[in-house]
Design a protein that fits this description.
Strand order of the largest sheet: 2-1-3-4
Strand content: 5-15%
Helix content: 40-55%
Radius of gyration: 20 Å
CATH superfamily of one domain: Glutaredoxin
CATH topology of one domain: Glutaredoxin
Number of helices: 5
Order of helices and strands: HHEHEHEEH
CATH architecture of one domain: 3-Layer(aba) Sandwich
Largest sheet: 4 strands, mixed
């Protein structure tokens, strides 16, 4: 009986340790997230979401502080109903990403998926973005 109890605690301890080592969406490299957020905005990519939507919160967490650079359209009224802007745009679920070519994807996307879908420089074998040149 004591062996079974000890074994149960050991298995539980290993499970907790493994869960703690699993990266969460919020562990994205913030420099990369900021660069991608800038690119998405420059490229005309928009994210439609709702303040009450847990998947939208997950998407925002992937970007961390860099999310403030993403063009975000809030679709929810205070009573959680959809506002006129998003009704007119035909948004049916959240989050919905709208890309420059007019295509939409309604799900949480990783940074790599967003890079690929938005033709982020460097994501298709092209040169990556360069730092702005400042002149004096």
């Amino acid at each position: 009986m004591l062996k079974k109890l000890f074994l149960s605690f050991a298995v539980l301890g290993v499970a907790v340790a493994l869960a703690a080592c699993t990266p969460s969406p919020a562990t994205t490299n913030q420099a990369e997230a900021a660069s991608v957020a800038d690119w998405l905005t420059q490229s005309g990519v928009k994210m439609y979401g709702a303040w009450w939507c847990p998947h939208c919160a997950d998407q925002k967490a992937i970007f961390g502080d860099a999310f403030k650079k993403v063009t975000y359209i809030e679709c929810a009224n205070p009573d959680k109903s959809q506002n006129a802007t998003c009704q007119a745009a035909g948004i049916q679920s959240y989050p919905t990403w709208q890309f420059a070519d007019g295509t939409r994807v309604s799900q949480v996307l990783t940074i790599d998926q967003l890079k690929q879908k938005s033709n982020y420089p460097g994501s298709n074998g092209t040169a990556g973005p360069t730092a702005p040149v400042t002149t004096q």
